[in-house]
Amino acid sequence: MGDWSKQERFAALLSGERADRPIVSGWRHFLDKEGNAKDLADITVAYTKQFQLDWVKINPRATYYAEAWGNTYDCEDYQSVFPKQTRAVIEKPQDVWDIQVQQAANAAPLAEQLEAVSLIRQGLPDTPLVQTIFSPLTVLLFLAGQSAYVTDTIYGSNQPVPIRTLLTEQRAGVHHALHAIALTLANYVQELGKRGMDGIFYAVTGTAHPDMFTETAFNEFSRPYDAIVLEAADYGKRILHTCGAKSHPERFNDYPIEGISWDMGASGNPGLNAELKPTKVGGVDHALFAGNEFGRIRSQAEFALRIMADEPFILSPNCAIPVTVQDQSLHALHDSIYEKGLN
To answer: Which end of the chain is more exposed for a tag (fewer CB within 10 A), N or C?
Structure first.
């Protein structure tokens, strides 16, 4: 069993095959370290080594995509994992026409992340790395000062342009903007591949919730632009994350992805027994890490490993680990595999 490399396990499991053992990872924000490439790279490498993660989802600041088109934020003032928005570039519906295609290497926020992933690859030469990519629809919502989650608002956004207003007044303009964002992100994804990324972690965030977008609307405004970005990442493995309640992971069975992540305990969502084609990624309630419920983290991890023992499976929290996490919680996740002699 010890002859398998991290890369071999990662590739096998996301190809729908069994490996010598399951693999584990978990990701979180480091709010005081995500303001520049070097700090983000240094903390990512140190965190990965400290908890012996089998693979890495790089977790940059949540707003860097929107920054690429001109949104601004006060990174000295956070609410949850979001810095305070000080400007959204879409201030009125017709502004969607101003969203244009960019070259990732020339857009400062994207270039910063390209530098970070290069540094992380240098620090973790043998560890599978995937970069977080938000869907074009999610980015558009941010550019209009909106949240991609039905129950949330963007911190600092006092007058967001409602999505229904955009669709009513500028439907063609919305498609124009989404296409420009998708082409930019596709270019960024290709640049990531040149810097040694093993794939992407593609987040449609909360946009699959029916109170955000009906299935018909999702199919019009997300699906075609998702395809552009995902196809650009065909050099590696693609894990899709559909966030929050009523997130419909089954909707993505025909997407070009190898892994699927969702909140298995949230309202309206299936559990690990869902009939899904991609390899399942998750199994542990990420909220348990906020209260550092070590025993429940360990028991949920062990339960997930038992019921998924005969299928390819990647153990992880169901979403990002809260920033209040203590080391003992992360050790509990890690030890669910390593203390059982699965290493």
So the answer is: N
Query: Distance (Å, rounded) from C-alpha 316 to C-alpha 51?
Result: 13
63-97 as b/e, with b when 16 or more CB fall inside 10 Å? bbbbbbbebbbeeeebeebbbbbeebbbeebebbe
Two structure tokens written together for 328: 């003992």
The class (CATH top level) of 6-338 is alpha beta
User: CA-to-CA distance for 88 and 55, rounded, in angstroms?
Assistant: 34
Q: What is the residue-wise DSSP string for 251-320? A: GGTTSS-SEEEE-TTSTT---TT---SSEEEEEE-GGGGTTT-HHHHHHHHHHHHHHTTTS-EEEEESSP
Q: How far is CA 38 from CA 29, 73, 112, 114, 341, in A?
A: 15, 20, 9, 11, 35
Return all residues near 168 (Cβ < 8 A) that are at least 6 apart. Answer: none
The domain spans of the chain are 6-338
CA-to-CA distance for 109 and 36, rounded, in angstroms? 9
pLDDT, tens digit, 9 for 90 and up, residues 88-132: 999 999 999 999 999 999 999 999 999 999 999 999 999 999 999
CB 49 within 8 A of CB 6: no
